[in-house]
Design a protein that fits this description.
Shape: globular
Number of domains: 1
Structural class: alpha+beta
Strand content: over 45%
Distance between the termini: 17 Å
Number of helices: 2
Radius of gyration: 14 Å
CATH class: Alpha Beta
Largest sheet: 4 strands, antiparallel
Order of helices and strands: HHEEEE
Length: 96
C-alpha cells in the first residue's frame, strides 16, 4: 500500500500498473486533473490492515491530497489486494 502511495506521489505510472491486478487495471490513469494541474499528495495514514485469506488482504487508509489550488481532500478507502505469483496486487477499493 505504501509503495503505491509513493508511486502516486512520484507519478510513477509504470509501477502503478505493475502493482495493479490486470483484471481491474484501468486503460488510462488520471495522474493530473482536467486543467493539467498535478495532484499534490499531502500524507498517508494506514488505519488498519488484515489478512483475509491465504492470498488476499485488505488495507484501510486515508490519503490527503490537493489538486490545483483547491482545498485539501481526504480519500478514505478500504483496498483489496491479492497475491499472484508471490506479488501483492491491488484489486479494487471501497471509498468511505
Amino acid at each position: 500500500m505504501r509503495s503505491r502511495y509513493t508511486a502516486y506521489v512520484m507519478k510513477d505510472e509504470a509501477y502503478l500498473r505493475a502493482s495493479w491486478h490486470p483484471d481491474t487495471c484501468p486503460a488510462e490513469l488520471q495522474l493530473q486533473d482536467a486543467l493539467g494541474a498535478r495532484t499534490v499528495w499531502l500524507g498517508l495514514t494506514v488505519k488498519r490492515h488484515a489478512v483475509t485469506g491465504a492470498d488476499s488482504a485488505e488495507v484501510e487508509f486515508i490519503a490527503r491530497y490537493r489538486s490545483g489550488g483547491a482545498a485539501a481532500v481526504k480519500l478514505h478507502e478500504i483496498s483489496r489486494f491479492v497475491r499472484s505469483d508471490g506479488r501483492w496486487l491491488y484489486l479494487d477499493g471501497i471509498h468511505r
